[in-house]
Design goal:
homodimer, 406 residues, alpha/beta, Rossmann fold, 7-stranded mixed sheet, 12 helices
Chain lengths: 406, 406
Amino acid sequence: MVLKGNAIVAQSGGPSPVINNSICGVIQTWFKEADFGTIYAGISGIKGILEGNIIDLKEQREEDIAGLRYTPGAGIFSCRYKVSDDDQIKLVNILKKHNIRYFFYNGGNDSMDTAHKTFLAAQDAGWDMRVIGVPKTIDNDLPFCDHSPGYGSAAKYIAATVRETGIDLESVSTKNKVTILEAMGRDAGWLTAAAALAKRFDNEAPHLIYLPEVAFSKERFLSDVEAVYKDLGYCYVVVSEGITNEKGEYCFTSGSVDAFGHMQLSGVGISLKEMVENEIGINARCNTLGTAQRSAMHFASKTDADEAYMVGAEAVHYALADKSGVMVTLERTSDAPYKCTCGEVALDLVANNEQKVPLSWITKQANYVTDEFINYARPLILGEVEVPMKDGLPDYVRLDLTKGRI
Amino acid sequence: MVLKGNAIVAQSGGPSPVINNSICGVIQTWFKEADFGTIYAGISGIKGILEGNIIDLKEQREEDIAGLRYTPGAGIFSCRYKVSDDDQIKLVNILKKHNIRYFFYNGGNDSMDTAHKTFLAAQDAGWDMRVIGVPKTIDNDLPFCDHSPGYGSAAKYIAATVRETGIDLESVSTKNKVTILEAMGRDAGWLTAAAALAKRFDNEAPHLIYLPEVAFSKERFLSDVEAVYKDLGYCYVVVSEGITNEKGEYCFTSGSVDAFGHMQLSGVGISLKEMVENEIGINARCNTLGTAQRSAMHFASKTDADEAYMVGAEAVHYALADKSGVMVTLERTSDAPYKCTCGEVALDLVANNEQKVPLSWITKQANYVTDEFINYARPLILGEVEVPMKDGLPDYVRLDLTKGRI
């Protein structure tokens, strides 16, 4: 028996280029398949819901909802906020007040922790509600998933950038002889590893890749760079923002800590640039793409965008089939040709649990990735998303988040 | 009477995404219109020519030459090298030896200095040779040009990145409230200013733009950021790598100097990020695109690419029409519709001479640009270059620079 009532969708954590494909999948599928209630958006994630910042999505223009498929950023805004015990009681009261029986939370590991707590809080309060996690993270570290929606697009952008800046380095290496690209991904090296997709043949960039999965040694790094430089006359290095020393401490931190207690990282690329200049004595450059790697919809992966939509649509199917307390996953069912379907996993198994790059996919010298990684990642970056252009730039949509406020 | 002999083309300085359009224009036009001799490439600019690193371009595959139209980096490699008096004598002997009567040099201000010196050295030696400068620079600082080939593409990429990362900032401003993007352009703020093309309406990113044309004040910067943050809850800042203090000294340098005596700049973005965090007490992020902004052919401007080809083709026309000692320029002949043709200027007027953003195009508060700038820059970023894709990434060509060595 289908539970009658309303639904709510919200986003949390850092956006991916295709995160809005997932909420578009949720919203369009809800309006198509639920013949009761409406679907609300919690503006700025759980924090917004707690503040009563909720809108009815049926007031939005259909073309704007459809435009979420090619628009980066968090379309209904996001937050980083850890719910307290008091928050949870307050939250359930708000959900009850609006007769919300379907709760869709779109985010990464921390967000699934929030979704799980919401699931438990509703249960404790005797409020019958379906809670479904909709996965997202460019970091690709969600466990029980072949890969995470968002990863393919960020990987594609990073690989293209490494190919382009690698060709640049090679063609002007009379001056700056080393280029260092710093990639996101706190404790999992998936995005850093994606740079390897750029290499078409020996000697093409990148030459060295350092992941956070293996302790970083300054001495090994410097001798690696020197060896490549001696051989080619230049060297392209890709490094994770989250590299650690032998004791497991981050090599470079800014000292501040986020709401979930995660150390804020900064300056890895520029620190290594200075290290190369001071200790090897050759000029280096550092490229730090920063938030561009999680918002570059102008060069997103079609495969990734379609899968991000699929997990959103499937979340609604699951909820309407009375599933709850689970996150939708992606399961690879075939390698050649690449095929992927959805599965599910209990939220508590995902919450605060990270999937790292297998050590067997990292070379023995700990400075590159193996062909197993390439075979794994290649299908995820295939195809391009068509983005409407206006005045020479991508013409992204904006929902009117002041409309339909309840 | 047309001077019979061979031609040579070479590239110098940092590449632009479309720099190879210009040499493609030179090479294809030469093969089409000169019914004598051949055209050589000097590998790695003047430095390569001096070392005898020269190839005959008729040995290259036609499809590879054509592929230069969508390939970033310097296709025949580049250098940063200041020629000495001894070099000039040696150079003319090499040119004579290979009966080189046409010399095409593709680069920016410093490169035009090299081209001018080559012109004078040949004249002094009584070697009759046409010398034509083919302009290129993402910095847009070549004088006597409405704009420089390369600028439109870098401007388009920066504006798209600011739009995307601006939407990202706005949608997750519960955490990092300030984003700082550091743009290239040592002493001219054209690329930094290009970020303004991203803004479609009030309050959209960017909010503050700091150019090197006006002295940077830390106090004004902090109060500007605080004012925007107070108003919106977040703030997007774009800053030139070359901002200077009241005395005209660079605010942030790495201390090293290049072959032309230019100070190497680094760390402006990260320094301002730390300033915002320490002095205002809110979290900030810094994006430093680095060499990505001069090589992002995956999102280049079609207008720019076509004009870069045009200046290359026109260089050959000029040389065959017995012009010499000049650089090809771009002249805007109409605003609506935008139209642009080629002109010429004496090399010595271009050499080491920079065109800056007019002060009248910078707001009185010195923290943004005016609509005059927008009207000037908008046509330059229109249209997209189609790049062949393979395995999910741009499939750029490579000339075989070992083939046809003379």
